Amino acid sequence: MADMIILILIIGYCAFLIYRNHKNKKNGKPTGCAGCAGANCTGGCSACLWHSDPAPDKN
């Protein structure tokens, strides 16, 4: 019984994501990557994962 509840929740969440993506596309909002908070994020979504350390620790 618990497996069915988990499966229903996963399917519902996937349906919600598809609906939200369709709604955003219909309203002209960008879909996919939401952007990056960093100032040096010009390479797309994957570039947001890589942050350079400007001042490495001095041991």
UniProtKB/TrEMBL annotation:
It comes from the Bacteria. The chain crosses the membrane at residues 6-22. It holds the Pfam family FeoB_associated. Keywords: Membrane, Transmembrane, Transmembrane helix. This is FeoB-associated Cys-rich membrane protein. It comes from Candidatus Eisenbergiella merdipullorum.
